[in-house]
């Protein structure tokens, strides 16, 4: 047996192990009820691995606070059991929650054929008594089935499956009994309908076929007599008869209801798509689908080619720009030459900003003659007092160049 509570978050796709209760358990049943801030889990029944004593604890897990509560139950207590099945229904105003329990097996191995209701938040056990026409003979017994059904379930069932239908009926499916001599009384795969609400009182029968017209739960008189209110809700028993004690926080939880937002499918399923044809000849319905696919593929390929072309042009322009920079290391001098006047100007000094400071001045002393651009059909005289051929500064005057 284990004591782990494992949850799975469908939004984050993550598992979480929440182990808060040290007592290992098995064979019980758990239900979700829309109470508190994010709902609560209710666990009961089964086998507990501790002192071996029988108790009637109801275990409540508050999802919002990740906290366990243990509450004692009272009322007409059922026989302890495991391997049973159950369903939960609640009133429209969320004032009370009723969990219907059927069948199971005792600690001695006997199978059970009775049914009970645990009502919350008063934590009261209520037996579901027979509602047969002949009520006077069976009024004070815990026998569940009307006379015709008594012969069908003489030994009860363990491992059955209880399924809620239209929030008003319980389907008991399959199960087994432990008496091989009475196997012919009911098949293991039998399916039986169980009326949960006021319809069982009105029809005077608990077991019946499915009623598609019964679409809501109305609290039956035998439960209303315990919890108060009416068939539509408004229960007045909103706490255990002995009080909450240390579980005072549960009072707040049961006075709060939580409506979970609806969850839709994670992938879209089209209901209008035509079925696939087995005819190898293309049909009229398949033509648009093929054209659409071709257009999509063509657009994708064209986009890829266009992107490659643009990237190639950008790369070519970048290389061309770098090549120009390497061929013309001093771009600003070129701009100065174009905008210079029509008379000679002095050469840059050895430590001009356009000169690499790591090179020696002598390297620049051996310059080549540069002809300034002339104007068409115009001759300008040099200003008076200016040397037409200034000397190039140099420490080693090995060669002298003139500027024309």
Automatic annotation (TrEMBL):
SUPFAM superfamilies named in the record: Galactose oxidase, central domain
InterPro entries: Gal_Oxase/kelch_b-propeller, Kelch-typ_b-propeller
Keywords attached to this entry: Kelch repeat, Membrane, Repeat, Transmembrane, Transmembrane helix
Region (Disordered): 269-298, 326-404
Regions crossing the membrane: 297-319
Classification via Gene3D superfamilies: Kelch-type beta propeller
Top-level lineage group: Eukaryota
Pfam families per UniProt: Kelch_KLHDC2_KLHL20_DRC7
PANTHER family: ACYL-COA-BINDING DOMAIN-CONTAINING PROTEIN 5, FIBRONECTIN TYPE-III DOMAIN-CONTAINING PROTEIN
Name of the protein: Galactose oxidase
Organism: Bimuria novae-zelandiae CBS 107.79
